């Protein structure tokens, strides 16, 4: 049984073995999470990865994987179409290194969930390898329910929470205010601005 956690990867040394479509998706997710130390090892890469390499967003070693490539890596992603290579990589890595295998879900000790993001709001969906198609279906349904309007709304909630925490009122009053902010009317931008003005004075 796995436990869903968020991992801070911005200063983590990450090795991606593979340069195809799935490797590209993994790299884009990592870059979106502010990863800056990504090393791709592959004889070839997609045009998207090539553009990122030219922009110095990641390092590329144009070659086949070698055991020495894992040295210093804290997070390793096996993203090729070669199951035997993935088994070799897993056998080489220390147990304290994060490992994601795009072919063998059970071989991984960390997994990439499908994410629906609206600013500070992040909703992650996974079937733990049972059905990626169902994961995609549920994600689309969630995207329709929580549209882009929620990006501004969640930012509003964040700003309000900071202001409420500073107010010299009782804990019960703070909780009442936080509960009130979940009312439908505060999806409206004008109502949000009015409440922020009230809290600042």
TrEMBL record:
Alphabetized InterPro entries for the sequence: Met8-like, NAD(P)-bd_dom_sf, SirC_C, Sirohaem_synthase_central, Sirohaem_synthase_N
EC main group: oxidoreductase
Pathway info: Porphyrin-containing compound metabolism; siroheme biosynthesis; sirohydrochlorin from precorrin-2: step 1/1
Keywords of the record: NAD, Oxidoreductase, Porphyrin biosynthesis
One Gene Ontology term from the biological process aspect of the record: siroheme biosynthetic process
Catalytic reactions on record: precorrin-2 + NAD(+) = sirohydrochlorin + NADH + 2 H(+)
The protein's name in its UniProt record: precorrin-2 dehydrogenase
Organism lineage: Bacteria, Bacillati, Bacillota, Bacilli, Bacillales
